[in-house]
User: Fold these one by one.
Assistant:
Number 1:
Amino acid sequence: MTSTTNTVGIPIKLLYEAEGMKITVELKSGEIYRGLLLGAEDTMNVSLSEVLRTSRTGQISKLPTVYLRGKSIRFIALPDLLKSAPMLQKVSSQKRKMDEASARDGQAKKRKRV
């Protein structure tokens, strides 16, 4: 795994969590790559192995490894297994606390108006 800094966001951290798992990457050109994520970088560049490449015309080819530049990636589909990743649980917990706090603040403002 590439060393992460405090400046990378949640999507990049989640991508690091997916290393060693099968992912699907769609490029801006319309090509689709599905393979085992070997590594990822802060710039969203990814290395895949055991790759199935689907061209825009639907032609499928097998490739041993590919390196995809983050700049050319439209989206990345990650495994559902990552829904239970500790990092996402922490973010969900923080969001829930913020929502509860804003709901309490909203109720307090309503009481003051009455």
Number 2:
Amino acid sequence: MEAQGALLDELMGKDRNLTKEEKKGYREMKWDDKEVCAYYMVSFCSHDLFANADCDLGKCPKIHDLKLKESFEKSPRHDAYVPRFAAELAQFCEKLVYDLDRSVKDGKVRLSQVPASPLSVEKAEKLSLLEDIKEKNC
């Protein structure tokens, strides 16, 4: 259903269902509006990176619109905005990497604090067999 709405928006515009009175107050969205995702304009949105992963950021609260991106790329102000948007994206990604590294480190600490359960004889034999195979292949 969402895909169909997006297709209609693309073909007929986002204001397709507005009455004449509502259209008077309607303002067309522009690429430099605060509601538009600057990361998407310059490259990619980091919210799309980890979809369905443990560190999923969820849906981006800002607007991703291909027409707005094309408008941005054709804009005479494009070259002035790209460095700023790219720097913001890089800063966000660096913070994300820092947070994920810290999460992995915390997970390793928690894992090291869990007492190791002794291996059953069967599992110990399988592990020994796998180590032998690894030594032969390496």
